[in-house]
Design goal:
289 residues, five-stranded mixed beta sheet, OB fold (Dihydrolipoamide Acetyltransferase, E2P), alpha+beta, 2 domains, Glutaredoxin
């Protein structure tokens, strides 16, 4: 007897009955932050309209990323009568290829150089490629000409003295830099929890912590891309008792892309970083006779 395997709508009915999610790649036609939905188009949608589109519910962060006109990959699932798209990542082939190639190069560097690949004061940034909270590709070249302040966190961290405190110091430092009118400073936070910290999760975190995104970028990416970058930044992360145990560091990077200051651990002050970002006062010109 010939076996008949479920396809299309039948497969989604099975998924619904089993409360499972399935990976799907679609193109985002439009986003509506007011209703927390994306209108998408692509193969495998369970109940598309006549024009081939379907409205899927998403998180507040995913609705704000700016995915309209771009391909994304996510987990399609049904909750009650509502279809959702969760764990959303950019899926444009050009972006995916750029991150894959950069990650391979970081891995080759580590294999060839070992611990010498760790970046310290005087070294250039590792040639990473990651996504920001807008789902855009970011590399060190993105920041050329800017002083950078870089830290590392994960958004689910609940230890008040670690990631939350670190983020609030970055927020305060950003305010002090603006108040002092120090030009060309960009703040960068790199997440080491790619399993959860999608671009949408980072956008939601930014809003929850009142980050001024005019000169603040939060970065994430596929697990291998994040791990290879963290390895060269010297950030150690391990899973322990259902949470992430990690080291911390905060860095200043010059407009030429070289690390000029590195503070290990979670204990750094706004003033010490502000002093290092403040340009030296111009020397007095000798008076003429």
């Amino acid at each position: 007897m010939r076996k008949i395997f479920p396809t299309g709508a039948v497969l989604f009915l099975l998924l619904q009955s089993l409360s499972l999610a399935t990976d799907i790649t679609v193109k985002v036609v439009s986003a509506d932050p007011a209703t927390l939905t994306l209108t998408v188009k692509g193969d495998g949608l369970p109940v598309p309209d006549k024009d081939g589109t379907q409205v899927l519910h998403v998180t507040a962060g995913d609705a704000l990323v700016g995915y309209a006109g771009h391909k994304v990959q996510g987990e399609l699932a049904k909750s009650g009568n509502t279809w959702r798209l969760d764990n959303i990542w950019p899926a444009d082939p050009v972006l995916v290829t750029a991150i894959t190639e950069a990650t391979k190069q970081l891995h080759r560097d580590y294999v060839e150089l070992g611990r010498k690949s760790l970046r310290d004061v005087g070294d250039s940034l590792p040639a990473f490629a990651l996504y920001n909270q807008k789902g855009e590709l970011v590399t060190p070249a993105t920041f050329r000409g800017q002083h950078l302040v870089i830290n590392f966190i994960f958004t689910r961290c609940t230890n008040p003295t670690m990631c939350p405190a670190n983020t609030q110091r970055m927020v305060q430092l950003q305010k002090e830099v603006k108040k002092a009118k120090i030009p060309n400073v960009t703040f960068v936070t790199i997440s080491f929890d790619p399993e959860h910290d999608t671009p949408g999760a980072l956008r939601q975190y930014a809003d929850a912590n009142n980050l001024d995104l005019a000169n603040f970028q939060l970065l994430t990416g596929p697990a291998d891309a994040v791990n290879e970058a963290l390895q060269q930044f010297g950030i150690l992360v391990r899973q322990e008792n259902n949470t992430l145990v990690h080291s911390m560091a905060t860095l200043i990077v010059s407009p030429e892309g070289r690390i000029t200051y590195r503070k290990q651990g979670e204990l750094w002050t706004v003033n010490e970083f502000l002093e290092r970002l403040t340009p030296p006062a111009p020397a007095d010109k000798p008076s003429g006779n």
